[in-house]
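Input.
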Amino acid sequence: MNTEHEIHRSRSGTHRISKRTMSMVMVLALLMSMVFPIVAQAASVKVRQGQYRGSHSSFKTNDWQFEGYSCYYPKCADNGGKQGDILYCIEPVGVINENTGSMNNVSVSNTLKTAMNSNGKNDAGINASQLEDLMGRICLYGSHGTAKFHIGNTKYNPDTPSKQWLATQLLIWEALVGQRDADFNYVAPKSGKPVAQTYANGNWSAVKPYYDEYAKAVQDSIKNSKTPSFMYDTEDEAEQKARVFPNSDNSTHTMELTDENGTLGAYTLTFPEGVEGTVSGNTLKLTATKELPDTVTITGVNKTAKAPKILIYGHEQLGKGSKNKHYPTQQDVVKIDGTASEKKVYLKVKTNPTTKTTTTTPTTPTTPTTPTTPTTPTTPTKTIITPPTTTTTPTTPTTPTKTTPTTTTTTTTTTTTPKPGTPWCEAPRCLFLATKEFFRKRAESPQIDSKMPDQTTGHFLRKSISFLL
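Output.
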């Protein structure tokens, strides 16, 4: 049985769990709203005709049918007044019917995909995404803003804003039907008539200056939106392909980079600490004023590189061929949504670990050890043989006392320089010859021992050796 304290604790615990559960539900709801955002009701627009309704003979270009009901006037979104946002036709086979009510804002991608051939591209080789980009640029650099509603069947006046509108409309149609490529260069139709000259008819001369001006602006914007050839669209790619300053013999490093795409001038560059840069045409000269062991980032910004978004009102299905094939009382239209946006590009640089070029002093070859001067051969030990001394007593002959010859070995450590012309290797031979000569003479004259005292014998031997050396 629970005590009052236990019951209170149980209730309190239940209360705490309820709060925790509520918090979890709120967090879950927030996460679901982020992953599965609530889709607002699609915006719609009521399309009004512009200042003048014209008529034109029908014609065909590539697979697209242009009906004679098209006109030279701006189409406008009805904003509740007498003028509205300018709209452009992207379904020339259709007709605007002001009495059919509003048209919904539909998917740009899905709608433009229906303008493609079976290979996913139009006759100029561009896909739906590229076509969307081109239309955004045409709307930006052509005529956009607001225009008045239709106010009657007044005569077409080339001096009114309708000529700017018509020049823009012609460029949109050219992009749509495959008469402009991805760089916005003109592409002649594979079949049928060219859109611009045919549709403008007698007003072509008045419209053409704006047509040419807008076309060039679009071409330039596409060209300038390209990334300089030595820069990259992401920092990760720039890091992987970082540039290294070459070594120099002073405290600075320099490097020159050339932009092969010719778009460097369209970007404003920002340099990090330790790097200075100057732009001359399509060349960027960089100077590193200090050691940069780690990469640093140079950033380029083009404020108008990315095309503005567009909005399409209609049914996500463009009719190409027969008149009003899909929606006999409607015509899909497009308008600009915002303005161009910036594009950033990156370049990473660093220096080598050593600021200066290290001059490696060639290792001095080790001086070969001077061969040890051969030790001058020690003069061979000269053995002096002292003849035995015999003591004779005049009166009584006695056995002579023979003195054992004493062999005196003298070790001469003094280096003796040989006489010129006598190689050291001949010394033993000379000694041998001298000894041989001595004993020959002694053999021939046995009396030599009695005639020559010991000193004389030794003297003779030394003289002989000296003579031979």
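The mean pLDDT is 73.
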